[in-house]
Amino acid sequence: MAGIRVSAPSHVHVGNYDIHGGLGRMYGTIGFTLEEPRTVVEVHTGKGVDGAPEPYYREWAERAVKVLEDAGCGRVGVTIRSVIPRNVGLGATTSLVLSIIAGGLRLCNRRARLEDLAARAGRGLVSALGVYSFIHGGFIVDGGFRPGSGRVPPLIFRATVPSRYVMVVALPEAPVEGILRIKEREDEVLESMPRMPEELAMKASRIALMGIIANAAEGDWVEAGRWVTRFNRLLGEYWADRQGGVYCCREAEEVVGKMLGMGALLAGQSSWGPTVYGLFPETLAPAVVEEVRSLLDGLGGGMVWATRVDNRGAVLEVAGDG
Questions:
Q1: Are the beta carbons of 231 and 28 closer than 8 angstroms?
Q2: Which terminal residue of the chain, N or C, has fewer Cβ atoms less than 10 Å from its own Cβ?
């Protein structure tokens, strides 16, 4: 059956630089797009969602199909070929939703801003990292959301990360169940957080601008990476009471420490975790993967892989081509 095949990247979250909100915007998200793992779907004429590995993915896929229908595309069918692990800090939900929406728009030959349709589907309203990772790829900084606006935050900075650098990503197995429990009551957790002190928001924003963005703009990932690590830890200190420490768990803390000890340009935890990551010169990556895998084996198991930063975003093609 003719259709559109969409392959969309994952991402990792560095942190949010303003959870104070005194200037009228909140959060402001920083993160990296990853080549692997990926969402792969085929959108075609017909009805129904096939291939969902569990109800969570089916429910979000059906929501995306409804957005397409409301946008004038009529009913489309979706076949899910592969998914990103959900609720572990890799951007699975937004990647799936936007893959279906973008594929459906191409299939029915309609134009629309993906940002607007993402908002209709309930994605990207707080953090736009997943939206801009899908559209543009690379290193992303958004400008924070205006409470009550119903709009996706603006993209304020994007940079390409050279292919000579490799991201080593680790997903410890033992903490996943606890992280899923946090995600189930995430709204409650966020509402119970005390307002970020203005001084902390100012410090985080200064690090984001002068430490991370300015150096990334010059292509100096050694210096930018040093500040990414510091920024991620600073935000971990803010969330420490809700996640049990600067990192979500012993596993995340030990892997980050291992990565930094092996020469990572940057290392941190993505969102609530337990996914952690480090950026390395490509010559170091194979040894790091082996060392981190050995460490995880002693901490209850998990996955570790090397991937590059995806600098192009999602790829759409006619199903069956290429």
A1: no
A2: C
Assess contact for 168 and 268: CB atoms under 8 A. no
Q: Which long-range contacts (CB under 8 A, 24 or more apart) does 74-77 make?
A: 74/108, 75/46, 75/47, 76/43, 76/44, 76/45, 76/46, 76/47, 76/104, 76/107, 76/108, 77/1, 77/3, 77/43, 77/44, 77/45, 77/46, 77/47, 77/48, 77/49, 77/50
What is the domain count for the chain?
2
Closest CA to 100 of 147, 34, 54, 51: 51
Check: CB of residue 65 under 8 Å from CB of residue 73: no
Domain of residue 296, CATH code? 3.30.70.890
Same domain, 185 and 132: no
- Residues 70 and 105 both lie in one domain: yes
Which domain does 108 fall in, by range?
3-159+311-318
How far apart CA 92 and CA 260 sit, in angstroms, is 27
- 182 and 251 housed in the same domain: yes
Condensed to tens digits (0 to 9), the pLDDT of residues 70-106 reads: 999 988 999 999 999 999 999 999 999 999 999 999 9
pLDDT digits (tens, 9 = 90+) for 144-184: 999 999 999 999 999 999 999 999 999 999 999 888 877 77
With tokens 């085929």, the residue in question is: 42
pLDDT of the residue at 181 = 79
In this structure, the answer to whether residues 80 and 41 fall within a common structural domain is yes
Can you state the angle between helices 250-261 and 285-297, rounded to 10 degrees? 150
